[in-house]
């Protein structure tokens, strides 16, 4: 089978799965819908594995040409290189597990088949996004995942209690992403007028040939691309939609809002590495935005009490770390963290889903506690996820974080200090979450406790598989301290993507790496000990929202970020809309015009009297006359 | 030829077909003309102008009655037939469709529209232009909300008033040529100081019809009180006459005045984009939301036409077609929602998608098409238009792109308030088959054109290129 055949099959599988479920799902048994949805994604995963085995040089597959003008054309093509194949592996691999999980999690839901339709379509759009060979195709996928995300966040839109807030969250996510999309559109315009093409391969070749570009053009393009990335990857200033997006079912949070879609922005910047390398100013902006996001989001996570909200802020914070890596020019490192983060964050979200499922839709950690006894598998896998994300030695997050931190230390020790604060906070809120949920005594009602249960195998199997990857994922890109030949495998692999090989990769020296690792390990273990002492031994429990004050309140209320936006953007625009409608339109323009109209009306009255006084008969005569004239000449003309 | 005359025949016949058969016959008639024009479209040679009537001599007062279609003409002809068909189809289960006068007016309207798009003579263009106003006025008068006859008068007189300036412009132009034939007008040696006035005359007529900010005040009240068919006809096809007029008549004929009017009209277009969008954000009348959305969409198209480059014109033409589709779709959905809830106030709606899932699905699809997501024609159209505006003036491009964001807000808001949340009504009828067919056709066409815009482009490319070359010639002539 040729490359192109595999790619087309790969793309068609989730599409057909989605369409089948969408069209006939209502009449199919639930098990079949779920199995079909999961099956197509697993088959797609096998296709990607075939690609993974064969990929060597970047291969561009041309499909068709949508628009052809003299000055430019818009093509549909796909690019198979190490970066796109690696991303596809994550998408379909994690995707399969989450589909499997959903079969159990969504069992009671009446929209079961719809859920699998949306999920499959999401995978399709996401694959288009990463396999697209140019920015235009990427944009197709980019909008596609946005729409699927909208549908899935608002999945329970008609819920009598939460329906409205769910649909508002969906709308917020879509609109904020649209702001980023506008940035992407402008980047497309500028790229088209600069290069006349949008193909990644062509642009990177032109640039490596040394085509001169005005530095303002590069700056504009990269800033626009990064604006798009801040929308999808939930960075300041566009991050506030992601915590709200937790309104969606938990598998959606795991798949879209943790493992795949939110990393699209990281992918976009890594894909455009050849452009960002030419814009040092943008790189600095990227770096600082990443640091700020990582720090603020970690702070906000400290006093969240909704199990999913904690994980959501943690995702924003981790995405900030990836953006830091992008700002440092360490694109492969960013993708490495994307990978490990996909493992442990999907694990944590699915774990929280298992908890929520077992607790019958209770999400407040203040009402949990002691769950380790009744949910052993969930507990152990969740523990592995927690350790991985907080950088516990030798687990996957340890390696990928350390790599980012190491690069940052090399470049700027002050910023290193700042980011370590974020890393510290990550460990604090994660252990808080873990201990409050699984240790201590149960704080909910007696009747809830009696019904808490471990989840079925479809839910625990993905947890186990993901926990293995979360633990061992670091092996993909070892720092090169001990096994030199196996070190930096992923970085080396990804260097085959366009533009990547031009990037000089300086790894920090042996003793620095070792020192940084020691510090990070100490930090993580220290926090673990402290958290155990605090939450288990002393049995400290999260306070109620009203009892919070000082920094705790700030953290709990997310630094009042939403309120700020409300006052600075939403309210003024709504005020403007209202005033425009009532003052300018109704009182100004319309009364002015109707004054004019009245004048004309009076004049019309006067004129009408000159005729026989019946406007309709006048009109009819005019029509008849015109028609006769036209018919006569039409017949005559032939 | 039959393309022009068939609707006239249908119109007259329809007046005499009694109620029970009326809706079937009107659907049949609309289908026949749609098929006729589709067949024509397939065999059309875009690089030649096909004349229906070609008088070399002149008749009374310089009129020639020439009619012809080129690529752009046949596209618009196809569009008008399509819209009429969709209107007839979406009215099929409504009581209006059983009224002989309603069906008669529909086809008289189509006759007028086809004439406008084929007229090759200035006076004939004007006559058809005014002819379209009468059926739509009567339709609004007889079938619209009774309490709003005042609005209707405003609309009628306003547009009539605007058109008078166009008549003046045509007459003034004709003073310098032996006849009103399009080609003669094109090469007329009009003294340059008058060209700008002539441009202005056309512009006033078109600005009212489109409507361009600040000439739009007749539009939202009219759209919100008219019967559904009237709103569809007005927004989906009548205002396209004005955009078509700008492309075919106003700019090529008085090209040297484009320099003067280009920037002001583009600015008005951009203001219209923002003005319409900002009002739609807070408007609670569902039909008015879509009416203001229409002002917003059309501001961009008008700006694109005034840029008058090949890319911008292509974007405008694609977006014109797309706008017709979404206008039909959105106003149908708005009408259904209004009927089911008994009010068009969004705040009193909610949860319709739950009780009427088919409506929920197709309304969502229509909203996505209106949001110009990739794979739909709107994406290609807006892409080309915003690109052209951006290249003309970067700041304008950025302002125009706000429509992407604001559009998402008001469109999804309308969907969310009407269809999401807990259902506020129970036991409502879901989509009727004909309504579903309309929405499906709209979706299929929008996606088809989004994937294959080359179809439209190759059709209109020769005529647009010809036009762009010609205007250069005529400008040299005058200088």
Brief sketch in words of this structure:
The complex is a heterodimer of chains A (638) and B (479). Chain A has helices at 3-24, 30-54, 82-105, 112-131, 135-153, 163-195, 200-208, 215-232, 241-244, 250-259, 264-271, 273-276, 280-301, 307-327, 331-358, 376-389, 396-411, 413-438, 446-451, 457-472, 489-494, 510-537, 551-556, 561-610, 615-637; strands at residues 59-68, 73-80. Chain A has 25 helices and 2 strands.
Explain how this protein is built.
- The complex is a heterodimer of chains A (about 650) and B (about 475).
- Chain A is mostly helical and about 650 residues long.
- Among the domains of chain A are: about 280-555, no CATH class; about 565-635, no CATH class.
- In chain A, about 70% of the residues lie in helices and about 5% in strands.
- Chain A is built from 25 helices and two strands.
- Chain A has a two-stranded antiparallel ribbon with strand order 1-2.
- Chain A starts with a helix and ends with a helix.
- Chain B is mostly helical and about 475 residues long.
- Chain B has one domain.
- Chain B has helices at about 1-15, 20-40, 70-90, 100-120, 120-145, 150-175, 180-185, 190-210, 220-225, 230-255, 260-280, 285-305, 310-340, 350-355, 355-370, 375-390, 395-420, 435-450, 455-479; strands spanning about 50-55, 65-70.
- A two-stranded antiparallel ribbon of chain B has the order 1-2.
- In chain B, helix 10 runs antiparallel to helix 13.
- The two termini of chain B are about 40 Å apart.
- Classes of the chains: A mainly alpha (about 650), B mainly alpha (about 475).
- Chains A and B meet through strand 1, helix 5, helix 6, helix 24 and helix 25 of A and helix 1, helix 4, helix 5, helix 6 and helix 11 of B.
């Amino acid at each position: 089978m040729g490359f192109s055949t595999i790619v087309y099959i790969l793309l068609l599988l989730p599409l057909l799965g989605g369409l089948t479920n969408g069209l006939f799902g209502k009449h199919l048994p639930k098990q079949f819908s779920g199995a079909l949805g999961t099956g197509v994604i697993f088959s797609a995963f096998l296709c990607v594995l075939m690609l993974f085995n064969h990929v060597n040089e970047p291969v561009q597959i041309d499909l068709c040409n949508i628009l052809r003008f003299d000055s430019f054309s818009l093509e549909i093509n796909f690019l198979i290189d190490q970066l796109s194949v690696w991303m596809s592996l994550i998408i379909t691999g994690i995707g399969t597990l989450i589909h499997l999980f959903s079969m159990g999690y969504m069992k009671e839901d009446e929209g079961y088949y719809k859920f699998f339709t949306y999920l499959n379509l999401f995978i399709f759009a996401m694959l288009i996004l990463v396999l697209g060979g140019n920015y235009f195709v990427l944009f197709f996928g980019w909008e596609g995942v946005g729409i699927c995300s909208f549908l899935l966040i608002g999945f329970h839109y008609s819920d009598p209690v939460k329906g409205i807030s769910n649909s508002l969250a969906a709308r917020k996510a879509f609109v904020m992403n649209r702001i980023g999309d506008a940035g992407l559109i402008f980047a497309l315009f500028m790229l088209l007028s600069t290069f006349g093409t949008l193909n990644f391969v062509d642009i990177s070749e032109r640039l490596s040939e040394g085509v001169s570009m005005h530095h303002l053009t590069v700056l504009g393009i990269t800033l626009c691309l990064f604006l798009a990335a801040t929308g999808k990857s939930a960075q300041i200033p566009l991050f506030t939609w992601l915590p709200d997006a937790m309104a969606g079912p938990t598998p959606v949070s795991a798949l879209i809002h943790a493992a795949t879609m939110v990393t699209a922005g990281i992918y976009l910047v890594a894909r455009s590495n050849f452009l960002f390398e030419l814009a040092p100013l943008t790189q600095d902006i990227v770096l600082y935005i990443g640091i700020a996001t990582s720090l603020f989001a970690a702070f906000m996570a400290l006093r969240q009490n909704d199990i999913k909200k904690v994980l959501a802020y943690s995702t924003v914070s981790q995405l900030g770390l990836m953006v830091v890596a992008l700002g440092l020019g360490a694109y492969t490192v960013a993708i490495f963290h994307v990978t490990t983060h996909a493992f442990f964050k999907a694990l944590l979200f699915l774990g929280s889903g298992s908890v929520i499922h077992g607790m019958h839709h209770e999400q407040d950690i203040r009402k949990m506690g002691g769950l380790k006894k009744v949910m052993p598998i969930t507990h152990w896998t969740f523990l592995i996820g927690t350790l991985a994300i907080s950088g516990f030695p030798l687990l996957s997050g340890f390696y990928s974080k350390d790599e980012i931190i190491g690069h940052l230390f090399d470049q700027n020790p002050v910023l290193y200090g700042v980011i370590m604060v974020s890393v510290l906070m990550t460990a604090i809120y994660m252990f808080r979450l873990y201990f409050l949920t699984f240790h201590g005594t149960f704080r909910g009602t007696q009747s809830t406790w009696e019904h808490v249960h471990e989840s079925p195998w479809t839910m625990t199997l993905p947890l186990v598989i993901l926990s293995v990857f979360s633990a061992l994922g670091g092996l993909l890109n070892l720092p090169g301290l001990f096994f030199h030949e196996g070190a930096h495998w992923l970085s080396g692999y990804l260097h085959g993507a366009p533009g990547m090989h031009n990037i000089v990769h300086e790894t920090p020296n042996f003793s620095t790496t070792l020192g940084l690792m020691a510090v990070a390990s100490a930090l993580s273990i220290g926090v673990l000990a402290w958290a155990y002492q605090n939450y288990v031994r002393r049995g400290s429990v999260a306070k109620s929202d009203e009892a919070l004050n000082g920094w705790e309140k700030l953290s709990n209320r997310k630094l009042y970020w939403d309120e700020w936006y409300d006052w600075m953007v939403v309210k003024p625009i709504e005020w403007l809309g209202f005033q425009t409608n009532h003052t300018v339109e109704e009182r100004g323009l319309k009364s002015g015009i109707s004054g004019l109209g009245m004048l004309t009306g009076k004049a019309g009255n006067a004129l009408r009297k000159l005729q026989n006084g019946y406007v309709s008969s006048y009109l009819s005569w005019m029509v008849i006359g015109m028609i006769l004239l036209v018919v006569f000449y039409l017949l005559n003309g032939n | 030829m039959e393309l022009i005359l068939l609707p006239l025949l249908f119109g007259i016949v329809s007046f005499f077909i009694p109620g029970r058969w009326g809706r079937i016959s009107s659907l049949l008639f609309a289908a026949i003309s749609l098929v006729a024009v589709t067949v024509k479209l397939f065999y059309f040679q875009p690089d030649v102008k096909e004349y229906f009537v070609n008088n070399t001599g002149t008749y009374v007062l310089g009129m020639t009655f020439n009619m012809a279609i080129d690529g752009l003409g046949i596209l618009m002809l196809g569009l008008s037939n399509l819209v009429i068909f969709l209107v007839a189809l979406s009215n099929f289960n409504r009581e209006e469709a059983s009224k002989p006068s309603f069906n008669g007016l529909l086809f008289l309207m189509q006759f007028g529209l086809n004439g406008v798009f084929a007229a090759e003579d200035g006076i004939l263009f004007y006559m058809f232009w005014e002819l379209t106003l009468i059926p739509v006025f009567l339709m609004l008068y007889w079938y619209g909300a009774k309490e709003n006859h005042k609005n209707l008068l405003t609309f009628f007189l306003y547009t009539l008033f605007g058109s008078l300036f166009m008549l003046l412009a045509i007459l003034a132009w004709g003073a310098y040529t032996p006849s009103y034939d399009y080609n003669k007008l094109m090469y007329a040696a009009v003294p340059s100081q008058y060209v700008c006035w002539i441009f202005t005359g056309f512009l006033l007529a078109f600005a009212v019809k489109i409507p361009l900010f600040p000439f739009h005040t007749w539009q939202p009240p009219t759209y919100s009180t008219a019967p559904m068919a009237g709103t569809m006809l007005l927004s989906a096809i009548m205002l396209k006459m004005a955009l078509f007029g700008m492309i075919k008549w106003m700019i090529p004929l008085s090209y040297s005045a484009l320099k003067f009017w280009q920037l002001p009209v583009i600015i008005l277009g951009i203001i219209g984009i923002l003005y319409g969008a900002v009002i739609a954000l807070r408007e609670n009348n569902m039909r008015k939301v879509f009416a203001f959305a229409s002002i917003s969409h059309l501001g961009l198209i008008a700006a694109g036409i005034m840029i008058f480059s090949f890319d911008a014109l292509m974007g405008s033409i694609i977006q014109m077609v797309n706008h017709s589709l979404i206008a039909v779709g959105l106003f149908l959905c708005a009408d259904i929602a209004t009927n089911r809830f008994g009010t068009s106030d969004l705040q009193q709606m909610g949860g319709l998608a739950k009780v009427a899932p088919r409506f929920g699905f197709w309304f969502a699809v229509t909203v996505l098409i209106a949001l110009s997501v990739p794979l739909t024609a709107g994406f290609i159209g807006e892409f080309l238009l915003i690109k052209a505006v951006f290249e003309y003036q970067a700041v304008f491009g950025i302002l125009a792109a706000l429509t992407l964001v604001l559009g998402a807000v008001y469109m999804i808001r309308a969907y969310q308030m009407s269809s999401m949340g807990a259902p506020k009504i129970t036991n409502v009828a879901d989509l009727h088959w004909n309504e579903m067919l309309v929405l499906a056709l709209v979706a299929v066409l929008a996606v088809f054109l989004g994937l294959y815009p080359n179809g439209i482009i190759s059709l209109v490319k020769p005529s647009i290129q010809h036009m762009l070359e010609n205007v250069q010639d005529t400008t040299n002539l005058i200088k």
